Amino acid sequence: MLHHMEWDSSDDGLEASMDAPSRLSESPQSKPSTITDISEHEFSCHCCYDILVNPTTLTCGHNFCRHCLALWWESSRKNECPECREKWEGFPKINILLRDATEKLFSEVVERRRAEIQANPKISRSLLAFQRFGDNLGRSRTNQHKGTGFFFSGVLTALCCVALLVLVFHWSSGVVEPHDLLISKPVSHWAPEEVVSWLEHLGPWAQLYREPFQQENVNGRLLLMLGDEELLKPPYSIENQAHRRAILAELDRVKALGAKPPQNLWEYKAINAGKSLFLLYALKRSPRLTLFYLYLFDYSETFLPFLHTCCPAITHIGQSMESSFLNAQLEPSWRQWAEFLVKYLLLPYQLIAEFAWDWLAVHYWTSRFIIVNAMLLSVLEGCALWRLWTRARIRSLPRKMWNHLWKTLSQGFAFALLWPFVPQFVCNCLFYWALYFSPIINIDLVVQQLMHPETQAL
User: Fold this and answer.
1) Which residues on neighbouring strands pair with residue 64, listed in sequence order?
2) Does the structure show a pLDDT above 70 at 226?
3) CA distance to 52, 56, 61, 350, per residue, from 87 (Å)
4) Positive or negative CA dihedral for 417, 421, 427, 428?
5) Which partner from 12, 150, 219, 344 sits 20 to 30 angstroms from 375, CA to CA?
6) Are 194 and 185 in contact, with CB atoms under 8 Å apart?
7) What is its EC number (predicted)?
């Protein structure tokens, strides 16, 4: 019996020992912390004191909301911690582990906070600016380690500069053709040979009347006295009325200018060096404002031929060249104005490309450079408008246009003041650089726009 009692007591002890862990686990003193004991305060940002949204960890170990860090950086422009002021290295990244844990524990709070952030346009602008800063920082570091690519880029830039200097020297020291002298020589001082050269420059149809002008030794003074009756009678005998009207129309332009009007790009540059340089840069940056400037201040000499070239009038089959020449001096029709205004508002660079296309026979390679450059500038303008549209910042377009207008006017005014003091060689360098080497720069800009689009916020 004693043995039996000892066995029972041992069984009770065994049961007690087996039940001990369960009772131990049920004791309130030894109960571990559960997931419900974790509060939002432990996952709060030290800037906004709210739940962390896209937590970003700095090198010092502190965590902040991504938008709070962007607002701090935009206001201070300092790469340092908002709490301990220790500078961070590189560009701060989102702590993915902490973000996933926060979203899993407090999903409803995080979603509410995320919706509030997305509805705030100021925060969206700050995040875009902060991300753009990080992208530029990464690209600059990449450029520092390009190695061979950076070396060849420098070599290409040096070769472009050398080519530009050779180009300017070639055109500066080149022999001026005889008809180029007429653009700067007063018409009253023209010799008979120069009058014949002016007549031949009107077109192939004018070759028919070269011999009478040579036989009569018509100089510049006599040319200014010719009228419709004199051209109809012998010895000139220009019986074709369209030919007489074309000669008289060009003669009126010569009388108004006092010299031969420029007929190509180089003649226009020789007479209007400052205006040609201004138009070359202004058409690139502000095509609409530049065309409006031509309409106001240079209507008959520049704007009217430009409009007739880009938006030609409807011509009949078999129309002669002299009739086309006369039509270019007339006021545009309402169809031409309508076509011009649509292209002016939507595709201003297409107008420039169409104008250059019409001059391919005169300026073969130069026209092609201008056409390529116009296409690249159209792509850049389209990318800028697309960014405004995708960021819902199209409302800021009027403000940007006003800032651009003010910037263009101030630069034009400064250009007009400094122009008399700029050496001609420097002007030639700027002219040929903008004409021939701008497409190379714009190609790089287009590649950057297409390969590195701006990162969207949130």
Assistant:
1) 56
2) yes
3) 21, 14, 11, 50
4) positive
5) 150
6) yes
7) 2.3.2.27
